[in-house]
Design a protein that fits this description.
This protein has about 170 residues and is mainly alpha-helical. It has eight helices and no strands.
Length: about 170
């Protein structure tokens, strides 16, 4: 009789069904991506990326004027980089990857909840305001990057001086 409780527990564990949440279906993920306008959002990133790259190039030149030829070269390089990124990161090429990442990250129940949110007025406002939110976030990041880049430049110059002094001691 001592073994009866142990046998009952073992049987209960053996016959219990796992309570693991079901993975979301591709159809529900696609519905979510459509509701969230993920493809359109990706497309809107490129205009902002273009502005960000121009600002970055200005920081590289430290605001010093460049010749027309140098500007043309930088503009051409920037256009090529944007074209490569637009091609390689086009919605058509990355959508399947998004579906996979969502499938690996969320449960069906979570996807259903997110879909319900995006179908609500607040969810639609959130979606519709995403481009403005991204634009404002990028502007904030650009403002923050200026001082950071100056600090990094100063650190780089100090490190170069230290390295030169260390070489001189040898």
């Amino acid at each position: 009789m001592k073994f009866l409780p142990a046998i009952l527990i073992a049987a209960a564990l053996a016959f219990s069904t796992p309570t693991q949440a079901a993975p979301p279906t591709d159809a529900s993920i696609n519905q979510l991506l459509e509701l969230s306008k993920a493809g359109k959002l990706m497309d809107s990133v490129w205009a902002q990326m273009d502005g960000f790259m121009k600002t970055s190039l200005q920081q590289v030149t430290k605001g010093k004027p460049v010749s027309a030829d140098e500007q043309a070269i930088m503009d051409k390089q920037q256009a090529k980089m944007i074209a490569i990124m637009q091609d390689e990161l086009s919605w058509a090429k990355i959508k399947d990857g998004f579906v996979q990442v969502y499938r690996e990250t969320f449960t069906q129940e979570e996807i259903d909840g997110i879909i319900a949110f995006y179908q609500s007025p607040a969810g639609q406002a959130f979606i519709d305001k995403q481009p403005a939110l991204m634009k404002n976030t990028m502007a904030l990041m650009q403002q923050r990057m200026g001082p950071i880049m100056q600090k990094i430049q100063q650190m780089t110059e100090e490190t170069a001086k230290e390295m030169k002094a260390a070489k001189a001691k040898k």
